[in-house]
Amino acid sequence: MVFSRWTTPILWTLHAYGRQRFVELQRRVGTITAKVLTQRLRQMERDGLVIRTYYAEVPPRVEYEISDLGRSLAPVFAHLAEWADANLDRVEQARHTFDATPAAGPGRRARA
Questions:
Q1: Residue 40 CB: number of other CB atoms within 10 A?
Q2: How far is CA 97 from CA 52, 85, 90, 92, in A?
Q3: Which of 45, 85, 47 is nearest to 65 (CA)?
Q4: pTM for this model (two decimals)
Q5: Domains within the chain, CATH numbers bracketed
Q6: Which of 20, 40, 59, 89 could cysteine-pair with 25, CB 3.0–4.6 Å?
Q7: Which helix (H) or strand (E) holds 23?
């Protein structure tokens, strides 16, 4: 649930920047489509990780913020950020090595 393709970046963005409108959140998350962002926000609201506030104005305004339950994941995010800082170079090197190796069929390992 938390580590799906978009849930972590959405929660991280809400945690880092606070309450946001849909368009602000979409812009900060990056390449996510409006449809997928809507789906993920609804699921996270259902799971209690995000709070959606609707303002009956003209035009209507909706804001999203991370809930206390969602905020309780902050230590997990911090560990992920530390891991990324410590290991991103190794991941990039592994990608480079993988991409430079000719495909050896399924599983890509050639056995002698």
A1: 21
A2: 44, 20, 10, 9
A3: 45
A4: 0.73
A5: 7-99 (1.10.10.10)
A6: 20
A7: helix 22-29
